[in-house]
Amino acid sequence: MKIKISLFSQSLFSLSLTEAIKTTADIGFPAIELACMKPHFDIDMSPDRVAEQIHNAGLDVSALSLFNNFTDRSQLNNQIDKAMAYIKMATLFNTKVIKMTPGPPDSATATEDNWRCLEIALRQLVPVAEEVGVCLAFETHMRQLTDTLSGAKRLLEITSSNAVGLTVDFSNMSFAGESMTDVISKLSGRMYNTHLKNGTIGKDGSWHFKSLDDGLTNYLIVLSLLRNINYNGYLTIECLSAYAMKNPYENAKNDLGILMDYLNQVKYSI
After folding, report:
1. Averaged over 129-155, what is the pLDDT?
2. DSSP for the chain?
3. CB atoms within 10 A of CB 57
4. Which of 102, 126, 170, 173 is most exposed, with the fewest beta carbons within 10 Å of its own?
5. pLDDT per residue over 29-43, tens digit each?
6. Distance CA 77, CA 96 (A)
7. For residue 200, what are the β-bridge partners?
8. pTM value > 0.70
9. CATH number assigned to the domain comprising residue 129
């Protein structure tokens, strides 16, 4: 069974976008998830030039990765307009996935108005996504509405449109105490993208990001479960450790090697 691999350009925020594109290709990744915020792809930059750089590097774009806040009424219209602009760029980058975030707070403290704001955003964004032919893949993100399995499921219940699904970040779900078996089995139907990172939680509740083989998430189990459901989307490595900031090339290359070894063990092919 074949799988696709990508590197989230946020892993290379210590580099300029031009350097990040080159580094992603030099390490051996076939695709990049393009972070749509400074210091990488900002909406004021020339999308044609960035798309050309990525194409010339021999990379595909696994997703345009947005950082949205659809839960604050004071920002809602601006956030919707900005998201629409990026969605309409998807064809230029030849990608079918727009990674999104719903916005804070965490699902335990979210109000009904937070959820209503998200619903308003989806009512406007879904028709545009359907017209363009892309999926809006909301990340299971810490300290946001989708920080738990129940929060992710509630987002999916807002609309039945297949244009809305999830970017499942397995480490974030592990931090929330969720079972990987439950996460993958219950979200599999609308899992359009994934993020792979690892780490631990300190006694004070802080997150400590490490290499892909060091932390709360067992990726041999995750990849075996993904193989069992025939997941064939992207596995996107995300490097957020302090070491990654200082040594972006070495960290991403190391995590890619770990992932390739795991894929070999569970008999996924690239």
Report:
1. 98
2. -B-EEEEEGGGGTTS-HHHHHHHHHHHT-SEEEEE-STTS--TTS-HHHHHHHHHHTT-EEEEEE-----S-TTTHHHHHHHHHHHHTTTTTTT-SEEEE---SS-TTT--HHHHHHHHHHHHHHHHHHHHHT-EEEEE--TTSTTSSHHHHHHHHHH---TTEEEEEEHHHHHHTT--HHHHHHHHGGGEEEEEE-EEEE-TTS-EEEE-TTSSS--HHHHHHHHHHTT--SEEEE---SHHHHH-HHHHHHHHHHHHHHHHHHHT-B-
3. 15
4. 126
5. 999 999 999 999 998
6. 24
7. 208
8. yes
9. 3.20.20.150
Instruction: Give the range of the structural domain holding residue 165, as residue numbers without chain letter.
Output: 4-266
Count of domains for the chain: 1
The answer to whether 121 and 149 are in contact (CB under 8 A) is: no
